[in-house]
Specification:
The complex is a heterodimer of chains A (about 90) and B (about 220).
Chain A: H1 7-21, H2 26-33, H3 37-49, E1 53-58, E2 61-66, H4 68-86
Antiparallel strand pairs in A: 1-2
Chain B: H1 14-42, H2 45-74, H3 90-114, H4 120-136, H5 140-165, H6 169-189, H7 196-220
Helix pairs in contact in B: 1-2, 1-7, 2-3, 3-4, 3-5, 4-5, 5-6, 6-7
Classes of the chains: A alpha+beta (about 90), B mainly alpha (about 220).
């Protein structure tokens, strides 16, 4: 049985998907992140509010890309995860 | 009546106990600061509470360090005569009270976080029971040691359980650290029988916080 992903892992997965492509369509994130449409919409909204990602319109189509804060979060992810795992806080 | 436990320490150890209190404060402050910096990135309420818990513990050790320094400086004037701080002023009594309250609330917060419940009534229950236990006890210090030992034992249970799920070096270090800290608090329970238990408790605390610091350095360079 696969373990349920925690919030931290989902955020990491979404950000990593966006980072790997530079500018990404929402459908690609949906496919890669393995989330429901509703869940993904909520996560994207939160990540934009927290300034980890930005949404831009290119030829009338929405594209997502990482902000500097998003790149920094990905760099620090391993440290954050190691700390939370040490104390069982995930 | 308040019997401040530094008064039960062998006189030659008082200087070390001041130093140790400052070291415990620094280690706790490090974990608190790091937790709160992670909270700013993850917005996890549990991490925020965990950070606040360690921050209160750090402040508790700061008040302990100041009190121990006071006892150390004034020990030659017989401030600990009859094992009571009768000659202390109101401010010092407030300091002891603050130390107990900060440590108790800090540990209760950590236990609440490890229970992984979002029910605030559980936290209220922990704080009320702790407060009643300390207020109604005839020997406040003993009740404080007993309460802290219980909280530390619960935390150790959580960290051992965490290690059993994730058998990694860092989870093991934290489980062992909190087990040692629990033993340290148990040691303090026996201070009235021999001053050696004060030294034993302090040394176990030093080892426990040493392991927590070691884990912190490992986390920062994964």
């Amino acid at each position: 049985m696969t373990k349920k992903r925690d919030r931290l892992e989902i955020i990491h997965s979404v950000l990593e998907t966006v980072r790997s492509r530079g500018e990404v369509k929402p459908t690609h994130i949906l496919y890669k992140s393995n989330l429901s449409h509703q869940m993904l919409t909520e996560y994207l909204k939160e990540l934009i509010e927290r300034d980890f990602m930005r949404a831009t319109m290119i030829k009338n189509k929405k594209r997502y890309s990482l902000t500097e804060k998003g790149y920094k979060y990905l760099e620090e992810y391993k440290v954050i995860k190691a700390f939370l795992e040490s104390y069982g806080l995930e | 009546m308040v019997v401040y436990y530094a008064c039960l320490s062998p006189p030659w150890f008082l200087g070390y106990s001041v130093l140790f209190s400052f070291l415990f404060m620094l280690a706790s402050l490090l974990i608190a600061g790091f937790s709160l910096s992670i909270y700013l990135k993850t917005y996890s309420k549990n991490v925020r509470l965990f950070g606040v818990g360690f921050l209160l513990i750090a402040l508790s050790y700061l008040t302990q360090a100041i009190l121990n320094l006071f006892v150390y400086v004034r020990a030659k004037n017989g401030i600990c005569d009859n094992l009571q701080l009768q000659s202390l002023n109101v401010l010092s009594h407030l300091g002891i009270g603050l130390h107990l309250v900060l440590m108790t609330v800090g540990l209760a917060l950590l236990v609440y976080v490890t229970l992984k419940t979002r029910e605030p009534k559980i936290l209220a229950l922990l704080l009320i029971v702790s407060g009643v236990m300390l207020l109604l006890s005839k020997n406040v210090m003993y009740a404080f040691f007993l309460l802290s030992t219980i909280y530390l034992a619960l935390l150790t249970w959580h960290f051992v359980d965490n290690y059993s799920h994730k058998k990694e070096k860092m989870t093991l270090i934290i489980a062992v650290a909190f087990f040692i800290l629990t033993l340290g608090w148990i040691g303090l329970l026996f201070i009235p029988y021999s001053p050696l238990f004060y030294i034993l408790g302090s040394m176990l605390h030093l080892s426990g916080f040493g392991l927590i610091f070691w884990n912190y350095t490992l986390v920062r360079r994964p």
